[in-house]
Specification:
- The protein is mainly alpha-helical.
- The chain has one domain (3-84).
- It is 49% helix and 0% strand.
- The protein has helices at 3-14, 18-27, 36-47, 51-63.
- Helix 1 (3-14) crosses helix 4 and helix 3 packs across helix 4.
- It is globular, with a radius of gyration of 13 Å.
Length: 95
Amino acid sequence: MSFQAYLDTIETRTGLTPRQLLDQARQRGFGPGTRAREIVTWLAEDHDLGRGHAMAMVHVVTRGDRIATTHVGTTGTHRDEADRLWLDGRATRPW
């Protein structure tokens, strides 16, 4: 599953875009220095997300929307279209 696919699934499961969840995380004081466990616990308790999907949001909260180019443009299972994650919802994604 691609990184973007995790975020798309999060949107489907929660009804919130990754950007909306990021805004909630910031309101809670979560950011670059926050431990993954704190974010994972919050997402499990408030949004019923499992660890794998929560860890995708941990990356976004603590590191932003950039990802490594390792799988960008490849044909493998974990391929992503770009090195930037789209946080504003599937319906508005430009690719």
